[in-house]
């Protein structure tokens, strides 16, 4: 009891002293030496029961957490690559794997067939009260046509269309409080495990995509590679990516600090992830595991000793989800926005219709939305 009174008194003295200091400073505009010496060890940090100085800034984190939990996350991944590399299978693996096993039970029992249209698969996943709307955009594979020239166009068009949608929403006079985000936050690009190096078509495709979206390359059907082949192939792909100036995620120039750099360097040393996909579950030691059953054993998809699917999933969801969203918003979308607004300023009009290369809005639709 006595202790408290003494402390209160002390606090009062401190407050009074600081008021006096302010007054003294203001008297003739010349800075005066402080009346009482400042303890160099505390340096103005508010400690313990100094409730007079407590503002509650740290509680902002709780506020942000509560708001984000209520609002939930939206995260959109796109899978791209040659036909038959296992894109649709990997999408199923992702939804069937630990990311969602508890919270959704997708009915994918029917056989996966060739993807002919771009399609979105969406699930709301909930873990410890945090909701995430995970959308995976499955795309038809390329490489089936005799002429594969411009096979990247539908993908580039789709990505840009989502930016355009967002931009138009942002420019509405009565815009929504929360603009639905359909922008592609990450593009998982599938490379065949059978080659020696990056193929010209992959170089061309990734070069174009790398300017508009974050690309995470993966080696598909990695169960066909031995451990040595896998290491060697990964290294060669990294060399080729660098030699061709292909920008893949996480990019060095967007590392925010030394801590980021250390974490991202590890990922950069490990890409492309060698993945295996499946939509089947098998019994291993009494546990149900996602795996591919072969004559010589079961390849466990979520086992890091077998393949790098779990590393890919951790990168996309556990460690870099927010960063992928930030890079999409602050870099890719921003580049798109600036270009579109410059174009329309140059025309002296509002947002003009998109050219084919950018998207598909026709002029009437564009005007009616403005
Ligand atoms: N060995 C092996 N086979 C796989 C793997 N993933 C998928 N497959 C098989 O590859 C075949 C094609 O798989 P899909 O998932 O349809 O391939 P896709 O890339 O979606 O093909 P498109 O829709 O034509 O673009 C199927 O028979 C799958 O069972 C894998 O990791 N390893
Ligand atoms: Mg498919």
Automatic annotation (TrEMBL):
Residues 71-343 form the Septin-type G domain. CDD domains: CDC_Septin. It comes from the Eukaryota. SUPFAM superfamilies: P-loop containing nucleoside triphosphate hydrolases. Signal peptide: none annotated. The keyword Nucleotide-binding applies. GO terms for cellular component: cytoskeleton. It is found in: Cytoplasm, Cytoskeleton. One of its GO terms (molecular function) is GTP binding. One of its GO terms (biological process) is cell division. The keyword Cytoplasm applies. Keywords: Cell cycle, Cell division, Cytoplasm, Cytoskeleton, GTP-binding, Nucleotide-binding. PANTHER family: SEPTIN. Belongs to the TRAFAC class TrmE-Era-EngA-EngB-Septin-like GTPase superfamily. Septin GTPase family. This is Septin. It comes from Denticeps clupeoides. The gene is septin12.
């Amino acid at each position: 009891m006595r202790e408290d009174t003494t402390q209160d008194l002390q606090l009062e003295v401190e407050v009074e002293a600081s008021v006096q200091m302010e007054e003294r400073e203001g008297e003739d505009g010349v800075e005066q030496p402080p009346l009482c010496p400042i303890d160099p060890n505390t340096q103005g940090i508010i400690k313990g029961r100094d409730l007079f100085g407590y503002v509650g800034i740290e509680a902002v984190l709780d506020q942000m957490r509560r708001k984000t939990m209520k609002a939930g996350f939206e995260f959109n991944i796109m899978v791209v690559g040659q036909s038959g590399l296992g894109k649709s299978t990997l999408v199923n693996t992702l939804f069937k794997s630990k990311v969602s096993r508890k919270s959704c039970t997708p009915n994918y029992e029917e056989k996966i067939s060739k993807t002919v249209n771009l399609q979105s698969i969406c699930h709301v996943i909930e873990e410890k009260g945090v909701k995430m709307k995970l959308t995976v955009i499955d795309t038809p594979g390329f490489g089936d046509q005799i002429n594969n020239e411009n096979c990247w166009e539908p993908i580039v068009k789709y990505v840009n269309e989502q930016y355009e949608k967002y931009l138009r929403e942002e420019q509405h006079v009565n815009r929504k409080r929360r603009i639905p985000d359909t922008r592609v936050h990450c593009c998982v690009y599938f490379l065949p495990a059978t080659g020696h190096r990056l193929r010209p078509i992959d170089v061309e495709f990734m070069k174009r995509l790398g300017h508009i979206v974050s690309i995470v390359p993966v080696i598909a059907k990695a169960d066909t590679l031995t451990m040595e082949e896998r290491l060697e192939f990964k290294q060669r792909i990294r060399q080729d990516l660098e030699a061709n100036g292909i920008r893949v995620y996480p990019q060095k120039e967007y590392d925010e600090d030394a801590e980021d750099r250390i974490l991202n360097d590890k990922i950069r040393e490990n890409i492309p992830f060698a993945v295996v996909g499946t939509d089947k579950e098998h019994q291993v030691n009494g546990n149900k595991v996602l795996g591919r059953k072969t004559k010589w054993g079961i390849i466990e998809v979520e086992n890091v000793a077998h393949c790098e699917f779990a590393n890919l999933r951790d990168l996309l969801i556990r460690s870099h989800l927010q960063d992928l969203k930030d890079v999409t918003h602050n870099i890719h979308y921003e580049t798109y926005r600036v270009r579109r607004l410059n174009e329309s300023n140059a025309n002296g009009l509002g947002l003009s219709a998109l050219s084919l290369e950018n998207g598909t809005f026709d002029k009437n639709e564009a005007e009616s939305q403005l």
